[in-house]
Amino acid sequence: xxxxxxxxxxxxxxxxxxxxxxxxxxxxxxxxxxxxxxxxxxxxxxxxxxxxxxxxxxxxxxxxxxxxxxxxxxxxxxxxxxxxxxxxxxxxxxxxxxxxxxxxxxxxxxxxxxxxxxxxxxxxxxxxxxxxxxxxxxxxxxxxxxxxxxxxxxxxxxxxxxxxxxxxxxxxxxxxxxxxxxxxxxxxxxxxxxxxxxxxxxxxxxxxxxxxxxxxxxxxxxxxxxxxxxxxxxxxxxxxxxxxxxxxxxxxxxxxxxxxxxxxxxxxxxxxxxxxxxxxxxxxxxxxxxxxxxxxxxxxxxxxxxxxxxxxxxxxxxxxxxxxxxxxxxxxxxxxxxxxxxxxxxxxxxxxxxxxxxxxxxxxxxxxxxxxxxxxxxxxxxxxxxxxxxxxxxxxxxxxxxxxxxxxxxxxxxxxxxxxxxxxxxxxxxxxxxxxxx
Amino acid sequence: xxxxxxxxxxxxxxxxxxxxxxxxxxxxxxxxxxxxxxxxxxxxxxxxxxxxxxxxxxxxxxxxxxxxxxxxxxxxxxxxxxxxxxxxxxxxxxxxxxxxxxxxxxxxxxxxxxxxxxxxx
Amino acid sequence: xxxxxxxxxxxxxxxxxxxxxxxxxxxxxxxxxxxxxxxxxxxxxxxxxxxxxxxxxxxxxxxxxxxxxxxxxxxxxxxxxxxxxxxxxxxxxxxxx
Lengths: 438, 121, 97
Description:
In chain A, 37% of the residues lie in helices and 22% in strands. With 438 residues, chain A is of the alpha+beta class.
């Protein structure tokens, strides 16, 4: 007997890695005419599509969409109970079917009707009489496209999960409630903090380094750029800062050492601004060094003064052999200190002006004196235009250290959104450790 | 109408050739063997709709016939079905159409063994 | 950020941020093709620079250094001058008033 196997009607599919996935796809054939169903099935089976089911009318089609969950629907436009447009619209109403390819068979070449088809959610149409090569080609194209979309979605979901895990790991680098609590309690002051990244993970890092007798260091680093690369660098820096524990009492030496290490690690064009402040409540002073970070701002209650600490230094990771200067300032019991990354001073959503360093100084002058650290941070964020839900163009960190109302009583912790304080809930990812007055 | 219809070949050679490329020989023969039953059922549906003077149903049934006949290359039968679906002006023309439909269907079915190349099962 | 090529270099104006990466890089490539031994980047009309912009200037410095060419930054003002001061960029680059 003269038997010739059916030709491969879609040569391209054989060379594709997705070929097998396409052949395994579930295809629902909806047609009220039994012989047409058999013909469509025969053509597809000859091309090794074997996962086929059949619907004889519109309701049948909708039922099978749910029970069979097809990857592609071949739909006859005229079935006795429902028109093809009606079936199409009903299928598309369900979220799970929004991207299932729907191919309709139609002899109609009315251009207006064609528009209505696509508006109803039809992906493509097949001319009648059935052209086997066209049928197979269109089925393959749409299944491959669907596979690509699905792979892309799965990839995005996986990356999103991994970034989420990385974000949690990064959050663990930041001082915990307990660490902030302990530092604030030991020094008899209040600490408010705020950190938010532009995407899931960011290039800002801050930390508290207890030294002795209630003295502690606080550092704020900001790597160029944001996202994964910048975030990985924060992990490196976190390890380095803790490696040089012996230098935690010497800001200039710590910066020089970190710089030498980062110069070797960072590629050209990447650097970190870095601010390190030792808060010495006993001596009533702060000692600090900066590597190009925005100058911290200090307020003095009794003198009514608000001023930035003018200091400069080459950012970390640019050049070898850089030395840094140590600066000492009085830090009286009526003083507050605000540390921030440039994500705050340079914040803009494209429509508003950046608040700038001068704007921050002004805001701190006009804000009520009674504000607790987290309330001051809230007020500053609002003044800069940073509201909850707004897209952050850059990673942003703010730390407020408040020596006023120093006390040795038990400390309580208020934490961001979970706090019962309505002001605090305006700003996410915020923590405050506060001394409670008896 | 009849003159035009006579110009349409009983079977569309190209469509048959396309089906032969796409389907296994036995599978195609099995499908074609079902064509008389399938087109016969569609013709019966047209008749039934005509007897109850349901023009819309006549046209719908003719549409089904056009589709199956056309896809299997039965060009003349498909063409006649198309006329009934799209060009019929009133029920008074249905009787004449049905008579011609029966005649063309008979010719088509009789020719099927030639197309398949062997007697139908 | 906008830039305009002149006789001895280029004039940059507007805001220089991370979004300008591609255009800044192609501008540097073009300046490097030009044969002169010293190129001046006039920042007089530049209103704002962020840390990504500073990073790109460092990349330009490296590229000019490798080509044995001199890059001069001229007349930074306002916020740009302030950033140069805070980061001591004036010690890393040759900066003219």
